[in-house]
Design a protein that fits this description.
By secondary structure, the protein is mainly alpha-helical. The protein has 5 helices and 4 strands. Bound molecules: 2-acetamido-2-deoxy-beta-D-glucopyranose (NAG) (3 copies). One 2-acetamido-2-deoxy-beta-D-glucopyranose binds next to helix 5. Keywords: Coiled coil, Disulfide bond, Lectin, Membrane, Transmembrane, Transmembrane helix.
Length: 207
């Protein structure tokens, strides 16, 4: 009885091995499907990684291009500011010079000195020499010494006072061509109580 039961059991197992039951077949198919879908998943992940890499690379490129543009913009802006600063410094110098000029005068002839808002050290037709302006005026009518002085003072100046040999040479250079027995210029020297004095008050030192 017992052995018959064993035989029965064996035959059952044998049959099981040779002809797989429909359940086991389904299991195997499921396993293959699982394998396949795992590979698909791997492939998808791989693809996703490559896609992500491409996207990141592209984004980095875009960022780099933007950064380069920013650097270029900042560099341009910096150059513009340096240029502007230079201009401002020049303007500042010019204004400072103008202020210095204005402070020299009690009544500045602004119309003559600053045409178009740009102040010059000397009025039109005057000559600059060692920070002073000179006008060599030889137009008619001829004037007396006193008339000449009035003429000068009307122009916020005075007859020339010669302080040193350089100035004397300069004045001499510019008066030569209009100097003979009938022509000449007045200077700011006058004979007061037996001594020659300059119009600015100091005594004649040039002899
Ligand atoms: C750079 O300047 C250009 C033109 O001035 C402007 O259109 C652009 O937006 C600027 N780029 C950056 C990144 O600031
Ligand atoms: C302005 O001019 C004065 C002389 O007129 C000079 O001493 C001074 O340094 C100048 N200042 C500037 C900022 O240029
Ligand atoms: C005067 O004229 C001479 C000759 O032209 C020149 O060498 C000299 O530098 C001039 N002097 C002045 C102070 O202008």
């Amino acid at each position: 009885m017992k052995s018959k039961k064993d035989d029965d059991c064996y035959s059952t197992v044998k049959i099981k091995n040779e002809k797989p039951s429909p359940e086991s077949r389904a299991e195997e198919e499921a396993s293959a499907l699982c394998h396949c879908s795992l590979m698909l998943l791997c492939f998808l992940i791989f693809s996703a990684l490559i896609a992500a890499r491409i996207v990141i690379t592209m984004q980095i490129n875009v960022m780099m291009i933007k950064q380069q543009e920013t650097i270029s913009n900042v560099t341009t802006e910096n150059e513009r500011l340096i240029e502007e600063r230079k201009m401002m410094e020049n303007q500042n110098k010019e204004l400072n010079r103008t202020l210095g000029l204005i402070l020299k005068f009690e009544n500045i002839p602004a119309k003559d000195l600053c045409p178009n808002k740009e102040c010059k050290p000397c009025q039109k037709d005057w000559i600059l020499f060692q920070e002073k302006c000179y006008l060599f005026y030889d137009s008619h009518p001829w004037l007396t010494w006193t008339e000449s002085r009035t003429f000068c003072r009307d122009k916020y100046a005075d007859l020339v006072v010669i302080d040193d040999l350089k100035e004397q040479e300069f004045v001499s250079n510019h008066t030569k061509y209009y100097y003979d027995i009938h022509h000449g210029y007045w200077m700011g020297l006058q004979h007061v109580s037996n001594t020659w004095t300059w119009v600015d008050g100091h005594a004649d030192t040039l002899g």
